Structures are given as C-alpha cells and as structure tokens.
Amino acid sequence: MFNSQGLTINYISPITLLMNKIWLIIEREYMTRVKSKGFILSTLLVPLGLALLIVLPFIAGMISEKEYLKIYVIDPSGRVLPLLKSNESFTFLSTREDYDSLKEKLRGEHREGILVIPEDLSGEVIEIMYFSFDNLTLGQEIQLRGKLKEILHKIKIENLGIPGELLEKLNFRLSLSTGKLSQKGEEKTNTLIAAMSGYIMAFLIYISMVIYGSFVMRGVVEEKANRVVEILICSVRPFDLMIGKIIGIGAMGITQFAIWVIMKTFFVFIGACIFSWYSMNINPVQLQRISSLQSEVFYGQIQNIMTQFHSFDFKLLFFFFFYFIGGYLLYSSLHAAVGSAVDQESDANQLVLPILIPLMIPMIILTRILHNPNGNIARFASIFPFFSPMAMLVRLASVEVPWYEILLSMILLILTFLGSVWISARIYRTGILMYGKKASFRELGHWILHKG
Questions:
Q1: Mean pLDDT of the chain
Q2: What is the model's pTM?
Q3: What is the DSSP letter of 133?
C-alpha cells in the first residue's frame, strides 16, 4: 500500500495484531517459567524420585541382612520336626527338654526361640505356639506360618491315605487370557493392561489440572500483587491476557511432561540393561537368597505384562491428549477467574473449592467405573464435561464406547470450555484491577451478568 507521497505503508490486520499480542503473552509466560529454578528442579527431581522409589526396594532386598533364628522344636507327635528343613533364615533343632526348662535356658537370649507342636494333629484347628524374647518380624512370621501349613497339609493327606502321585496330578496353573471385542473383530488388548493404562492416564490428567491450574491462579495473583497487570492491560485486553497466560502455562506443562516421558524411557532402558546383566552374572545361591518364590511370581507377572504390551490400543494416546488439553483449558480458565477475584493466594480457598470438587468426584468413582464401565454412572461421568477428562479415558480403555457417546463427550467439553472462558473473562476483566477486597459469590455473579 502507498500513501500520497509514494512511501510504502505495511498494513497489519487487527487479527494479526491481536495474535501477535497473544503470542507475546504466551512466550512471556512460557519462558519465564521454563527458565525458573523451580521448573528445572521439579523436572529433574520428580523422575529421579520415582526411579528411586522403584529401584531402592529391590536394592534393599539384595543387600539387606538376614535375621537368623535358632528354633528349638518340641514335637510330641514326632511327625513335624523331620519335615522342618533348616535354611538361611531358620535353624530347627530337636530337643528333649520341656518348655519350662527351655524357657529358663533361653532367658535373655536373642535370635533363639521355642516352637511347641501339639501331639494331636487331626483337629480342624491346630494350635502351634512360638515363644522367644524377641518378636518375630512380619517376614519371619509369614515364612514360618507357610512352612508349618505346608507340612500339616502333607500330614493330613497321609492320614487320609491319598497317594502323593495322585495329588501331583491335581495340581495345575490356570492361565486366563482376556481381550476386548470390537465391531471390527477381536482386539488383542489385555484387560489388565487396558485398565491400568486408563487409570494411570486419568490420574495424570487429574494431577496436571490440579498443579497447573494452581499455577495459573498463582500467576494471576502475583501479577495483581506486583501491579504488573496494570501495565499489561494498557496494550492488551484482559481476555487476551487470560488466554495467553493459560496457553503459556499449559505449554510449560506439556514440555515438562515430555521431558518426564523421555527420562522415564531412559531409566527403564538402563534398568532393563542392569537387570539383564545382573541376572546373567548372579550365581544360583545368591538368586535363591532373594526370596525365590516371591521373585518368581513377581518377574512372571512383569514378563506377562511385557509380552502383552504390544497389544496396547494406541488410539488411547489421541484421546489422552485431547482430554488432557480440554480438561486443562477448562479448569485453568476457572482458576484464572479465582485468581483475579482475590489479592492473596490464601484468600482463594473458599472460591477454589467449587472447582476442586468436580475434579475429585471422578477420581472417587473411578473404581466403580472400572467394575462397570457400561453402567449409568460410568456413562454419565464420561459425558459430563467436568468429569469426562478422567472418566472417559477409563471407559475407552475398558470397553468399546459407542462413537456417538465419544463425540457428544468431546463436543460438550469444547462448548463447556468456551462457556467457562466467557464467564471467566467477565470475572477477569473486573477482578484483575480490584485490590484490597475478596469478592463473594454474589459479586462474581454480578460481574458475569453485568453488561459493558
């Protein structure tokens, strides 16, 4: 475009100018928080903390000291003691002394005890007593109880005259494979993995909305306290300022989640390499010392989960990102409205409670949704926009949800977000410049309905 003097004038449309202003706000909110020490520390320490919570119990199990017990067994029946095999935790000793003599002998002794077996082993309730000057640990009691129960089970079988070979044939392991059927055919999604995936995704959305929603509220309160907002609204509308703040903090949250996923993948890979190396180099004696039975069950479950992971329904990831973003935008706009209505973060508790209650309700009923994903409660929660970010993911992971319910849930979430942005913007434009007073619910309603 040229003026009368032939000079070139660049025309910038109002929409472009508005987008540039919003983009500057987004960039400011994002860069300010990403460069902060709190963001860097939380981004690095949270994955490290989770990794330690997983790894430390395993390491502690390998290096923990064993408590060795010397147990004197009083067995009038003569049938239990021969079957009690000593191991690294217990040493079983035969004795001809009575209980009173042993009690005096072991007075003040540590790691020694007395096991009294009744003579009659035919009753429905067999009372076995253990005495020592040190209490058994929980692990020792479970292990000793298991040994005695196994031995008494064998003795009762012998009393009934049932051959051992016949009993071995009756023992078997049941392997139940579960899957989800769809209209196109059989989906190979494992039920356990699907339920776990849906619950974990719902929990991540819940945590993110609580944490990053509070970030938005805290950011608005800080700008009011520092009077920064008075400068900002001279060049940008309160509505645009609120949108830029919500998107900027949301982008920070997505960045943090992405870094956590990368770090988690790295830690899992390193852990798998270390465990593989350890499994190949450990000798059988050490392997047996690490609670062989529990290890077999645990690693069997892990192996089963890993073999079924290839059947994971990756469509869930699309819905996860949609409900993550939709839920964040919905609740962050409400948190921004609360932040603009108060001067201090401590004053926001009364106003933020109506926001937190709809967040907590779906987490409370998630177990019920898992048990009956096609029930009326599950259907309502997955469609109601304040519950759907968490509830719908659990349903999608568990059953084949009709397409019209999914579409209705997504449309209602978008419409509710737009409505909440409109309501929050009307609260924001008035409350952002108010100081020294905490607004009541009646005043918030007046701000929303007030024209102008």
A1: 75
A2: 0.64
A3: S
pLDDT at 182 over 70: no
Predicted pLDDT at 197: 78
**Are 218 and 82 part of one and the same domain?**
no
| Amino acid in position 156 | K
Based on the domain organization, do 217 and 258 belong to the same domain? yes
Reported as a single tens digit per residue, the pLDDT across 216-252 is: 888 777 777 666 666 666 667 777 777 888 888 888 8
Label residues 399-436 b or e (16+ Cβ within 10 Å = b). Answer: bebeeeebeebbebbeebbeebbebbbbbbbbbbebee
Q: What is the CA 111 to chain-centroid distance, rounded?
A: 40
The 10 Å CB-count burial string (b at 16+, else e) for 162-188 is eeeeeeeeeeeeeeeeeebeeeeeeee
∠ Cα 368 371 372 (to 5°): 85
How far apart, in whole angstroms, are the C-alpha atoms of residue 413 and residue 370? 22
The pLDDT value recorded for residue 290 is 46
Check which CATH number belongs to the domain holding 106 and give it. 3.40.190.10
Q: Determine the Cα–Cα distance for residues 339 and 223; give it in Å rounded to an integer.
A: 10
CA-based end-to-end distance of the chain = 36
152 or 380: which leads in pLDDT = 380
What is the extent of the structural domain holding 330? 14-59+190-449
Beta bridge partners of 112: 70
The arrangement of strands across the sheet holding 129-132 comes to 90-94, 69-74, 112-116, 129-132
> Is residue 90 within a helix (H) or strand (E), and if so which, with residue range?
strand 90-94
